[in-house]
Inverse folding.
């Protein structure tokens, strides 16, 4: 069974602070995706990382895929209240058909 | 292009009843996956359908079943409901179910009393 451990579970910070969310697994994934979910809505894809060591930037968000494709991180610079939400990492296993294994999620609150 | 739609959005049932949830994928998408989201277990994969065939299944009891129609719309059914089945049920669609982006619907929130 593939598992993804996400940390921290909860994070409450002030506007302008930086933060990093981690996603770790003992399994190798074909790709790793990061989603953000707002209350009452389904997850929305932020980014997909495919290559070991890959770094992708989305405005103030930086995503990194570990060299061995087992772990990933999401770094937010100068967090804003609009960043508040549930962040989920998910590993995609290509050979298993279309299946995503999700981490437990990080609930982020950014206070103004 | 319309997004993934799920009906109903909210549902209240009692233990022992059964429930059917519906998911309409994005037009042209042929793969539909279902997930259960609970505070304790997070998001867990239920099953995936592609071209009316179940292609992948998660670790859930046989009370959870699904099907897909020729127009790619999908339904999932939960029989003999238990309190622990209370959850947000999400479906997601992709074109072929490969490495493309999965687009999630808003979910159906099921409460079992």
């Amino acid at each position: 069974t593939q598992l993804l451990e996400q940390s921290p579970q909860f994070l409450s910070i002030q506007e302008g602070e930086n933060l990093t969310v981690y996603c770790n697994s003992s399994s190798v994934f074909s790709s790793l995706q990061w989603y953000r979910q707002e209350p009452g809505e389904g997850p929305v894809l932020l980014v997909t990382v495919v290559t070991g060591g890959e770094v992708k930037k989305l405005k103030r968000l930086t995503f990194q895929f570990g060299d061995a494709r087992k772990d990933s991180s999401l770094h937010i610079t100068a967090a804003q209240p609009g960043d508040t939400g549930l962040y989920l990492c998910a590993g995609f296993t290509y050979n298993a058909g279309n299946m995503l294994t999700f981490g437990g999620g990080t609930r982020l609150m950014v206070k103004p | 292009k319309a997004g993934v739609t799920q009906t109903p959005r909210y549902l209240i049932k009692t233990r022992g009843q059964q429930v059917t949830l519906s998911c309409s994928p994005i037009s042209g998408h042929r793969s539909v996956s279902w997930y259960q989201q609970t505070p304790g277990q997070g998001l867990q994969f239920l099953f995936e359908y592609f071209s009316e065939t179940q292609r992948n299944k998660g670790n859930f009891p046989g009370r959870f079943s699904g099907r897909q129609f020729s127009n790619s719309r999908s339904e999932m059914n939960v029989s003999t409901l238990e309190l622990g089945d209370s959850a947000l049920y999400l479906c997601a669609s992709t074109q072929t179910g490969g490495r493309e982006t999965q687009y999630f619907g808003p979910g159906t929130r099921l409460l079992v009393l």
Summary: The first strand of chain B starts at residue 5 and ends at 7. Chain B is about 0% helix and 55% strand. Chain B has a mean pLDDT of 93.
